[in-house]
Amino acid sequence: DAGVIQSPRHEVTEMGQEVTLRCKPISGHNSLFWYRQTMMRGLELLIYFNNNVPIDDSGMPEDRFSAKMPNASFSTLKIQPSEPRDSAVYFCASSPSRRAGEKLFFGSGTQLSVL
Amino acid sequence: AQTVTQSQPEMSVQEAETVTLSCTYDTSENNYYLFWYKQPPSRQMILVIRQEAYKQQNATENRFSVNFQKAAKSFSLKISDSQLGDTAMYFCAFMKDAGNKLTFGGGTRVLVKP
């Protein structure tokens, strides 16, 4: 099992540019989560999907952020336009079900720097 | 809303010694789950240990054990026989008994010294 796969590992972009982060969850997992990690705010849940449907997007900071899950094996987090304050590590995680108490498996994250 | 607090920003310990990390949380829920995750320099979040609130017995995973005090809403992690590979950030996390969203504490950096 390859685990949760995120790409790219690092992304450097200029303010105003569109950024797309990608995630492939573990096969068979039907819950997917996007987290953001910053020094100031720690780890924050942005959005999560169950069976490809967004369940809770209350953590998405603003309309510049959007997330999609077109199928069970792929999700994207898009920022358009990007701003320096979006600089952070973005993690994707998946879990086998929506059942309470399930362990989350995390990817290695994407380090985003917006100049 | 739930909150998770880790009051120790950084701890250091000598190799082979024991270190205890504190975590407190605030919730009105009666059933929930608590986790400790490790984040080494490689950045990946790795589950260390998991506790179900309705179980009184403290969870143990090899050198890692917890002291779960439900009434005090406390969930500390003890690392015994510390190894250099234990050097990492450690995050305490809370999950309600419905759905599987994790709420994280601010983290404690652990440095194991040779």
Estimate the mean pLDDT confidence of chain B: 94
DSSP summary, beta strand count of chain B:
12
Count of separate DSSP helical elements of chain B:
0
N- to C-terminal separation of chain B?
41 Å
Number of strands of chain A: 11
Q: Report the β-strand fraction of chain B as a percent range.
A: over 45%
Can you count the helices of chain A? 0
Indicate the radius of gyration of chain A in whole angstroms.
13 Å
N→C terminal distance of chain A: 36 Å
- Give the strand content of chain A: over 45%
Question: Uncertain spans of chain B, ≥5 residues at pLDDT below 50?
Answer: none
How would you name the oligomeric state of the polypeptide chains in this document?
A: heterodimer
Quick one: biggest sheet of chain A? 7 strands, mixed
Instruction: State the helical fraction of chain B.
Output: under 10%
**Greatest chain-chain contact:** A-B, 25 and 26 residues
| Secondary structural class of chain B | mainly beta
Summarize model confidence as the mean pLDDT of chain A: 93
Compose a concise summary of this entry.
Chain A is mainly β.
Features:
heterodimer, A: 115 residues, mainly beta, seven-stranded mixed sheet, four-stranded antiparallel sheet, globular, B: 114 residues, six-stranded mixed sheet
Structure description:
The complex is a heterodimer of chains A (115) and B (114). With 115 residues, chain A is an all-beta fold. Chain A is 0% helix and 54% strand. Chain A is built from no helices and 11 strands. Chain A has strands spanning 5-7, 10-13, 19-24, 31-38, 42-50, 53-56, 65-71, 74-79, 88-95, 105-106, 110-114. In chain A, the strands form 2 sheets. In chain A, strands 2, 4, 5, 6, 9, 10 and 11 form a 7-stranded mixed β-sheet that branches. Chain A has a 4-stranded antiparallel β-sheet with strand order 1-3-8-7, with no helix packed on it. In chain A, β5 (42-50) and β6 (53-56) form a beta hairpin. The model of chain A has no long low-confidence stretch (mean pLDDT 93). In chain B, strands 2, 5, 6, 10, 11 and 12 form a 6-stranded mixed β-sheet that branches. A 4-stranded antiparallel β-sheet of chain B has the order 3-9-8-7, with no helix packed on it. By secondary structure, chain B is mostly beta strands. Helices cover 0% and strands 54% of the residues of chain B. The A-B interface holds A 31, 33, 42-43, 45, 48, 55-56, 89, 91, 93, 95, 97-104, 106-109, 111 and B 31, 33, 35, 37, 42-47, 50, 52, 91, 95-107.
